[in-house]
Amino acid sequence: MSVGxxxxxxxxxxxxxxxxxxxxxxxxxxxSYIALTKPRxxxxxxxxxxxxxVLAEGAWPSTWLVLITLIGGTLxxxxxxxxxxxxxxxxxxxxxxxxxxxLVTGAIAPRNxxxxxxxxxxxxxxxxxxxxxxLSAVLALSATAFYVGVYxxxxxxxxxxxxVIGGAAGAVPVLVGWSAVTNSLxxxxxxLFAAMFFWTPPHFWALAIKYADDYRAANVPMLPAVVPFDHxxxxxxxxxxxxxxxxxxxxxxxxxxxIYSVTAVVLGAAFLASTIVLAKRPTAAMSMxxxxxxxxxxxxxxxxxxxDVLL
Length: 311
Description:
By secondary structure, this protein is mainly alpha-helical. Helix content is about 75%, strand content about 0%. It has helices spanning about 30-35, 40-55, 65-85, 90, 100-105, 110-130, 135-155, 160-165, 170-180, 185-210, 210-215, 225, 230-255, 260-280, 285-310, and strands at about 1-5, 5. Strands 1-2 form a two-stranded antiparallel ribbon. Helix 2 packs parallel to helix 9 (about 170-180), helix 7 packs antiparallel against helix 9 (about 170-180) and helix 14 packs antiparallel against helix 15 (about 285-310).
C-alpha cells in the first residue's frame, strides 16, 4: 500500500483498535439498526457535550437536562449516521472496512433504514425542544442537515477538502451542549467549536492513511488517497497547530485554571509531536497510533476542562 510518493508499510493492528474500521456484521435485526447509527462515533460526540454543559453552567448542570441533551444528541447523531449509510451504500460495497454494514449485507432494506433515520431526527428535535430549548434542537438538526447535505451528498465524492468542511457537523455538539444550558451562544462555545473543527481533519486523515486503498477503490477523494503522503501530513500538522491554538485561546476566554491549562499544553504538544513523527515514519501502524491518540486527546482534554470547572 502506498500514498503518493511515499510508501505506507502495512502492519498488524490489535483487534478492536480501529474505531471506524471494519467490524463483524450484526447478528440480529436490532443489532443491525443500532449499527446504522454508528454508536462509536456517537460516543465521541457525546464526550464533548457534557463538559461543555458544565463549562456553560460553571458547575454541574441539572442532571435531568444533561440526560435530555444526551438523549437528543444521540438520536440526532444516530439519524445523521444512518442517512449517511443510506446514501453511501453503493460505495460501502467497494470498501473493505465497510462491507459488513447492514445496508451492504442486506440485513436492513434501504427504505426501512431511511424511515428509521428520519424518525430518529424527528424524535431528536422533539426531545431537545421540549426538554431543553428550541435553539439546541435547531442546532442539532442543522448539524444533520450539514453532514448529510454538504458532506455526504456533495463534498465527500467531489472534493479532497471533504472532511475539512464537512467535519464542521461533528463540532456542533459543543454548541448544542452550551445552548441547552444557556439558551444562547457566546464566544466560548465558538472557540470550542473551532477547536473541534480543526481536530477533525488530522483525526480522520490518520485513519484514511491506513485505508487509502479503500478510498481509491470507491473513487472517494479523501486527501491521503489523492495527494503525496508528505502533503497530507503537512496538512495534518497545520490543522493540529490551529487546533492547539484554539484550545489555548479557551483559557482566557473561559477563564479556565491550571488543571485545564497544563493538560491543554501537554496534550497539544503530544498531538503535534505524533503528527511530526508520522511524517518521519510513514507506516500504517504509526497512522493508527495518531488516530488512537486523537481520541484520547479529546477525552482527556474535555475531562480536564470538567474537573477544572468543578474544582
